[in-house]
Amino acid sequence: MATPIVKLNSGYDMPLVGFGLWKVNKDTCANQVYEAIKAGYRCFDGACDYGNEVEAGQGVARAIKEGIVKREDLFLVSKLWNTFHDGDRVEPICRKQLADWGTDYFDLYLIHFPVALKYVDPSTVYPPGWNAGSPEPEFSNATIRETWNAMESLVDKSLARSIGISNFSIQLIMDLLRYARITPATLQIEHHPYLTQHTLIKYVQKQGIIVTAYSSFGPLTYLELNHKSAKETPLLFDNPTIKSISERASKTPAQVLLRWATQRGIAVIPKSNNPGRMAQNLDVTGWDLHDSEIEAISSLDSNLRFNDPLSVNTPAPPFEMRSF
């Protein structure tokens, strides 16, 4: 099943529906990527911090070797982790990640968080996470401008076709756009009916930047992490509004949540290791919700964020200046 594409401001096409690699286990990742490609997925969203880029690359390599796809058929995404924000650290870690994936370029490379941490040598701890074995994070003096300039050089050297940002606020984006030589192609954010971030999305889309949603199913994504707020929050799949729309449209609650995003031009990156759900998650563009249903889902907003480092006692508050 082919998925529609969106045109990035860099001139490249990105599938509107991709496959997210966060929390995909290393021992199953290669096969999940391979099976997702067979199911029709062409966009894969990875990151240094996920710790499974070697395995994801193995899944890609298998599919290419078997002739299912060519490299140019795929849209591979990765992210710069916080410990590599110093300008001279960006290219070396990008090259390492490319080698892990077994590819010469990323279709899209993002700054994962607007938080610069002290450099950690990949030969000692990788991926380093927030603390890299220390009691708490150690910060770097690298500015976003320094990091973005280094990101732009990745495009100049054909290591990344497009570059973008993740988990940035309006305030940081406004500042970045004042000096950016290359405008970010995408912004990736937590986005679900409990956290609609309407003003942020409206502003970013007006700048010609594509928004990608992660955690589209809200608290469900965080239950396995024993996240306190997620355990205390009703599942979106059980919400009466979502269930009613699901029944009317003859679609699953997951499909309704994904279509709520894609119908508004927001890309999504769900994951599943179930073949049936893989196919269902791709089928979120060829049908429409009613305008009143879009509004009803959006009205569930309660500014409830699950992916916040502060919630796990990490003193690095990228979301302190929230965008409602």
Automatic annotation (TrEMBL):
Q: Does Zinc show up as a keyword for this record? A: no
- What is the superkingdom listed in this entry's lineage? Eukaryota
Entry EC number(s): 1.1.1.307
Which pathway is this protein assigned to? Carbohydrate metabolism; D-xylose degradation
Q: Where is the NADP-dependent oxidoreductase domain?
A: 18-301
Identify a single GO molecular function assigned to this protein: D-xylose reductase (NADPH) activity
Question: What is the protein named?
Answer: D-xylose reductase [NAD(P)H]
Organism name: Elaphomyces granulatus
